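This part of the workshop introduces the protein records we will be handling. An example says more than a description, so a record of this kind follows:
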Amino acid sequence: MSRLKGKSALVLGAASVGNMGQVIAERFAQEGARVTVAGRNIQNLETLADAIGGSAVHCDITSKADIEAAVAHTVAFSGAVDIAVNCTGWGLLTPFEETSEEDLVAMMNLQFKGPYQFMQSLVGSMSGSASIIQISSATATILVGNHHAYIGTKAGIDHVIRGVADEFGARGIRANSISPGFTKSPMTEDYFAVPGLAEAFVKEYPMGRLNTSQDIAAAAVFLGSDECFMTGQNLQVNGGLTLRRNPMPAEIEASATAAAHAAASE
């Protein structure tokens, strides 16, 4: 496994144990990359960096100074950045009319301004054959209830990815996004703990299962590798979910209620 041998990689959003960013960082290291992991929990990051022979740096994506410092740290550790992945996100679930201004601003800072400034900081520090990878969401295409601020910011930055790909392709920089479906992770573990909730989703996946973080890591390896001749694209790595739809809130509630009743009758 050496598809990324000798490459310098930065994975932002890898601070929660077992999250998608950590899985991607581990896979990159297995493929031969020198990996810097970044996020807000430096203790978790340092543990991961030690395990994969990489480097760790604190970075709050809502702070441009933090982003610039993380990019500079990566360059100092392993040279010009060849691969940069942004995995940060906040799964806010709030009815449209109840979304507060505070939450809306926080979501925009985390999922639009931050990724925008991350890419601004990267393009001047990337090698002549480089890859920017944004983790998006299938919901930016097929929607799900009570998720509008999340959906809108993810969709917005997907379009910025297209602009970056167009402008910087001549410099050898590729920019793409990956859209998972409903994925088990620290961000979603509370939802997966609700009996019947995952079952409401899985029936909409033509391939018969929900995607995993490992599926997304495999796609990120391809996008980061020299064999990738793709830019400005959004990869729907979710088992065909966008051929169908996400369940409606009432369907999710019905599935959870049925599972609760079944458990009570046992």
